[in-house]
């Protein structure tokens, strides 16, 4: 058996080497020629799995170690009777911790705000619900908007009410362009006009959910603090946009060691089901020990050790350092992600998880 795997997946050899020859490739540049004699394909969101890639191949299984599926042509896969799997929720904890870290980096005093600070969450699926629980541990007031999900303990409001009331908004929706509630350009000029200038915006979901031109116009006038981990025209990012952002990171919000390993483990389990193998491995056995920072009160630990747990400013600086000729180009962007030193989740340091 032969497996083609994105070179940035975690623990691929640990989970799959006993089954097949594994060839590691750059996921963004995979071609039909690369995969035509493969039995299985393991990818991330940078690989477009469509007819052009999979037609006239031996592929029987595609696993994507990602929450989203917008890069998978599911109809094309099912037409060819190719089993497929993604990894919903695999990095939800990492993204929730990323959002809280970004907020505390911008304003450490938020640790003392309790119910006087309203965090609004757009999208209450795996990530949004996890973020809500973590924010409530800090005592923050949480409101949410999701036309498909209602969560107990969270006030669900209309999109308009959310925009009006929020002190910070965090986006956690898939990218959709049709249906009753499309998310492409959900945050446009109209949405920005409804928000207080002081409202912080964080997007760690999909870039095109925020209309870039409208965002740049809004920041220019409102001076809003905006954190982007994803970009409408990713992987190409303009220096003009970066100069307007409070924080910018290279699509790594979910890049914890646990999150990456959990994603690979989830597609390993689906792979085993497809090919009738026993599921015998778990990622926890592969994780090294790390310092324990949460041996005190949660807020006190974050106040004292936030940078040691995750230095988000370093990620921002490294992305900005990649600017050449007015933009960050694909090669530099991909190298940052490929060489990213995976951080550990709070639980590894003795902290809580939702």
Mean of residue pLDDT? 96
Strand order of the largest sheet: 8-7-6-9-10-11-13
User: Strand fraction band?
Assistant: 5-15%
Rg on CA atoms, Å: 20 Å
Fraction of residues in H or I helices: 25-40%
Unreliable residue stretches: none
Order of helices and strands: EHEHEHEHEHEHEEHEHEHEEHEHHHEH
Question: How many helical stretches?
Answer: 14
Number of strands: 14
Distance between the termini: 39 Å
Shape, principal axes of CA atoms: globular
Structural class by SSE content = alpha/beta
Query: What characterizes the major β-sheet?
Result: 7 strands, parallel
Throw out a few tags for this protein:
354 residues, globular, 14 helices, 35% helix, seven-stranded parallel β-sheet, five-stranded parallel β-sheet, alpha/beta
Description:
The structure is a single chain. By secondary structure, the chain is of the alpha/beta class. Helix 5 (92-106) crosses helix 6 (126-137). 45% of the residues are buried. The protein has helices spanning 12-16, 32-35, 51-54, 74-79, 92-106, 126-137, 159-165, 189-194, 212-222, 239-244, 257-275, 298-309, 312-320, 330-338, and strands at 2-6, 21-25, 40-43, 61-64, 83-85, 118-122, 141-145, 155-156, 168-171, 200-203, 226-228, 237-238, 247-248, 327-328. The mean pLDDT is 96.
In short:
With 354 residues, this protein is α/β, with parallel strands linked by helices.
Topology:
Elements: E1 2-6, H1 12-16, E2 21-25, H2 32-35, E3 40-43, H3 51-54, E4 61-64, H4 74-79, E5 83-85, H5 92-106, E6 118-122, H6 126-137, E7 141-145, E8 155-156, H7 159-165, E9 168-171, H8 189-194, E10 200-203, H9 212-222, E11 226-228, E12 237-238, H10 239-244, E13 247-248, H11 257-275, H12 298-309, H13 312-320, E14 327-328, H14 330-338
Parallel strand pairs: 1-2, 1-3, 3-4, 4-5, 6-7, 6-9, 7-8, 9-10, 10-11, 11-13
Antiparallel strand pairs: 12-14
Helix pairs in contact: 5-6
């Amino acid at each position: 058996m032969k497996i083609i795997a994105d070179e940035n997946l975690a623990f691929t050899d640990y989970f799959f080497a006993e089954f097949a020859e594994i060839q590691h490739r750059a996921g963004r540049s995979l071609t039909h020629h690369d995969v035509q004699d493969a039995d299985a394909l393991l990818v991330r969101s940078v690989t477009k799995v469509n007819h052009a890639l999979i037609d006239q191949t031996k592929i029987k299984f595609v696993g994507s170690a990602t929450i989203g599926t917008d890069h998978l042509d599911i109809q094309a896969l099912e037409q060819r009777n190719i089993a497929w799997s993604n990894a919903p929720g695999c990095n939800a904890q990492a993204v929730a911790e990323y959002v809280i870290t970004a907020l505390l980096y911008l304003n450490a005093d938020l640790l003392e705000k309790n119910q006087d600070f309203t965090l609004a969450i757009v999208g209450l699926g795996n990530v949004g619900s996890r973020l809500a629980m973590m924010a409530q541990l800090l005592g923050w007031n949480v409101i949410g908007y999701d036309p498909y999900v209602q969560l107990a303990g969270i006030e669900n409001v209309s999109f308009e009410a959310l925009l009006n009331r929020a002190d910070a908004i965090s986006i956690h929706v898939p990218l959709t362009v049709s249906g009753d509630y499309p998310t492409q350009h959900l945050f446009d000029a109209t949405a920005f006009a409804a928000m207080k200038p002081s409202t912080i915006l964080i997007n760690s979901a999909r870039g095109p959910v925020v209309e870039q031109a409208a965002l740049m116009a809004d920041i220019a006038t409102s001076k809003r603090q905006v954190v982007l981990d994803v970009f409408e025209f990713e992987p190409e990012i303009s220096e003009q946009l970066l100069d307007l952002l409070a924080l910018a990171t290279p699509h790594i919000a979910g890049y914890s060691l646990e999150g990456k390993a959990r994603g690979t483990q989830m597609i390993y389990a689906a792979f085993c089901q497809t090919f009738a193998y026993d599921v015998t491995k778990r990622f926890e056995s592969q994780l090294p020990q790390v310092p324990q920072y949460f041996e005190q009160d949660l807020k006190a630990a974050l106040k004292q050790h936030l940078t040691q747990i995750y230095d988000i400013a370093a990620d921002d600086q490294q992305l900005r350092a990649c600017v050449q000729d007015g933009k960050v180009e694909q090669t530099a962007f991909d190298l940052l992600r490929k060489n990213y030193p995976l951080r550990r989740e709070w639980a590894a340091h003795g902290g809580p998880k939702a």
